[in-house]
Structures are given as structure tokens and as C-alpha cells.
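FAQ: What does the model actually see?

It sees only this:
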Amino acid sequence: MLRAVLLSCAIAAVCLAEEALILPELLVAEAPAPSAEAGVSLAETLHSLPGVRLLPQGVGGQSDLSIQGSSFSGAGLSLHGLALRNPQTEHFHSELPVLPEVFGAVAVRTGLDQQAMTSTHLAGSVDFGLGPIRRGGRLTLGVGEFSAWETSLYGAETMPVADGTLGVAAFAALAETDGDPWRDNDLRRNLGGLHLQFRRADWQFDTLLARGSKTFGARGYYGAPPALPSEETLRDSLFFVSARKGDLAGEYLRLATAWRELRDAYLLDASRPFLYENRHHSRLLTAAADQRLLLDESWSFLWRLEAEREDLDSTYRGTIPAAPLGEHWRARASLFSLPEYRVGDWRFAAGLRATAFTDDAPAWLPAAAIVWTPAPETELSLAYSETVRLPSYTELNYNSPTSLGNAGLERQHARSLELAAKAPLGERVRIRSLAFFRRESESVDWVKTAPGNPWQAVNLDTVDVFGLRLGGEFDLDANWRFLAEGEWLHKDCAATPYASRYALDYPEASLRCGVRWQALSWCELSVEQGFARYTGNPERNTGRSSWPAALAVTLRPPARANLTLTFRLENLWDERHEPVVGVEAPGRRASASLAYAW
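And it is asked to produce this:
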């Protein structure tokens, strides 16, 4: 019944027009009000960001994050500049146990921008900020095919206190789906938390407590045989405190610290749990302080100091011979300094990050940039930067029948060069482009050396990554918006393994196009069509090309402005392409949601 309703809306949409998701700029400066479109996870938010690619495994169970063609291990999330890593594995670096309404600004940071503003990942970070709490809230109820349902609640209140404003926000969400008829990768998820905020003059103080739990079918994940009904449970707890004075666009001072705890349990065969069970307990303690000082009209100076410690305890039990990841800890500390000189329309910056490790040699990472701003909203920049990454404990120590870690892995070192441009072409057209080159030394990947062999973690020596991305938006009028973004990637590597699972398995060309039409004041229609052409991989059970598409119809009754009804159809053409080798994409999915905002 639900699919029939949705398809009827789709037919009406074709008769009227088509619409698509709107790609925001790299930096969204304002903290948005709670959105009726927001979902239980951050996946929709990340999908809409330029240059960010999500590789979903199952329906909401787990998604790998990629930036500038990186492997999942080269990208991650940060909060107020703090990288919230998972010491066990980066497979969960695309999620936090919070609702999107909690966040304000979001920026995709790469190159020198990442060096200056966040704890770094190898290729890039999606950096979230906590926006001002505003009075109001949202309740969403959603249903979909395969017995899917979700509900989320966000509510906030503000009050004047001691020459300032105190804000309190609470949030919670529940979601469940039975997977689809072709696979049993189901999902059960819940999360909840509290956000406290005090604002006074140009200071903002935030405390965030959040906890989430999910259990999902993991059939075929991580190189495991698709014949086995694998299952995984992840419990994620986060405590975050920050203080900020000033605006990040000018002079500012930031202080932040976070404690994150993750408990992960993985069953290779949920129907026979006695065969293979891994349990991991990870802890992350991290803190940072950074400041930008405007010394005069020409000179500014930025410094950033950060430290973090990771702990992991792992146990294994099962009749299949294997070993746990063990007990480990490591820490790092770094100092980054960046003087900048401005003259006319030009900016020149050069800095250095010095990083010390408890279990590796120090790293000295230079960065520099030249920026030309001939007109407002028009910018041309050339930037160089370097980053390093230590292998995860899974890459170092994992031991299963199908995947083997490597305790001898060296740390990765990336040298990146970026040439970026953005400009408005008139009042209604905005374009952005980026050309980048990244040389990764000792790049880590999971590869097979021959058919039937297990996946093994290896260093690929040197991988050269070339990329070109072009995107933009065009507003025909107040009711029509068109968007398009395309990316070309090429990687050179002297090593030629039989098959790569991550680093050398990537889309050589990808395109995303869409259109949004405000058909009536109360009816919005959108459609998005994508295309991706992957490298050849003998372990992929589908073709190299993928045609993802989505359709949405949003209704806002004129007499009930606080109600929003949304119908969605995802994977419009019922694609079966494997975005991650060995994991078949879910089928076509119809859903509907009703949101009430106040």
C-alpha cells in the first residue's frame, strides 16, 4: 500500500516537475533550525556535502566515509575541531550518537584548512559545530517497507541567566527495519542525549552527553562470507565540553575536551554464536586548544595544541582458531602554528605541525597556502599540507578465517596539493572546482593475493591519487534549483594485488545531478540521479557501473504550517551494485514520514 501511494506521488511529480537534494556550500555558517527532513542518523547530512562519499553497507547498519578518494580509514568526523576516532576500527567514523538538530555549522575540511582547524585525518574531516540552542522542537514518525519504522524527538528551551542565555536541549530516537527480502541485514537502533549551553557576550559554553546503541545484521561485511548470518552490536557513549570566544571567521579562542567509549560485539554466525565472537572495549580521551590572533591589518597568527589517548581491550571466544586484538594504549600530542600575511587581495600562509607519539617517531608536517580573493565570494587558492596516520588495531591485529591483520604495518604519510576555485556567475549561478594530488606513502589496504585467499592488511608503499571535482547550483527562479557535481579520480600504485577491498577500489568517475521544484507553496518535489563507474575488481559480484537515484515529495499543509509530510523512494531503479565489495546494495525502498515542529 505504501509503495502504491508513493508511486502515485512519483507519477504526479513527473507530470509537474522533478527535484533533488540541495548541495550546501562547503561551510554552512548559520546554525539551522530543527529540520523536518532530519533523520535518525547523520547519513543524509553527510550525503549532501560536496566531495563526501558514503558507502552504505545494509540499511543504516554501517556506512564507510570517503573524502577526496580516500579509503574509509582516511576520513572521519570531528566536533569543534576534535577528531572523535574509534581506536578499534575506522568503519564507524561516519557516525555519532546524536540527531542532526544538535549541530550548527558543518564544514568539509581538507589540506591546510584541516591542519589549522581540526585534529587531522589522513585525507579530510567533516567538522561539526554546536550551534546556538533555540526554543522549539520537532517530533517525527516514519514508516517504510520491510517493516521499517523510526521516531525521533528533539526539544529545546532557553532562559535568561546571569547576563546571558541558558539553553537546554534533549533528544532521542528509535529505529528498526527487517532488512529486505534478499538479505537479512536488519537494524535495531536507539540514541538519546542532553545538550546544555550558556551564551554570554561573545562566549559560548557547551556540554553534550549522548549515548546510542544499535544491533545490525552484518552478512558479508568486512570480507566475511555472505553465506554466514553475521551480526554486530555497537554501544557508543560521548561526553563533550567546549568553550569558544569569537567567530571562527575572525579572531577566536576555543577550548574543547571529549571522552568517548565504544563497546563492540561481533558474531561471525549469529545462528551459531559459539563459533566466533569478538568483543572490543575502546576509550578515547582527547583535548585541544586553538586561537587566531589578528596582530594588525596585515598579519594574523593561528596556533593549535592538542592531545589524545586511545585504549583498547579485546577478547575472543569461539571454536574457530583465532585471537583477540589484545590490550593496547597509545597517545599523541601535537602543536601547530600558522602565521598569515595579507596584502591587497592576496593572503600568504606557511606553518608547521609537530606531532609526538608514544609508540612511533615524531612527525614534522609542513603546510602552506596562497589565496587570491579578487571579489566577494570569489576565491582561488593553492595549498600544500602533510598528514600522518597510525594503523588501527584491527589492521594490526585482526585474526579471522577471512581477514588477517599485520602487526608490522608502518604508519601512513600523505602529502597533498590542492588547487581550488569558487565563484558566483551572476546572481543565480554558483560554481566550485577543485583539483588535488595526494601521495600516500605506506598506504594501508586490505588485499587478496589470489582467489580464495583471505583478505590481508598490507602497506602498498606509494599510492598517487589524482582528482578533479566540479560542481555548482543554478537557480532558475525562486521555485527552481538545479545542481550538478562530478568527480574524476585516478590512482597510481606500483603494487598490483589480485584484489583490493578499499584503497584501490574506487569510482574512477562519478556524477550527481538533481533538480528541486517548489510546485506550490505547500508542495515541493525533488529528484536526484547519480552515476559511478568503479575500477575493475574480480571480487565484485556485480558490474562496475552504478545508477543511484532518489525521489521525494514534501507536503506542508497551508492550514498546518508546523506539519510536514514526506514521501521518499530510494534506489529508484532497484540497483544491485556492490558499493563495498561483497556487500549487495539494499533494494528499492519506499518510506513516508510525518513531522510536527513547534
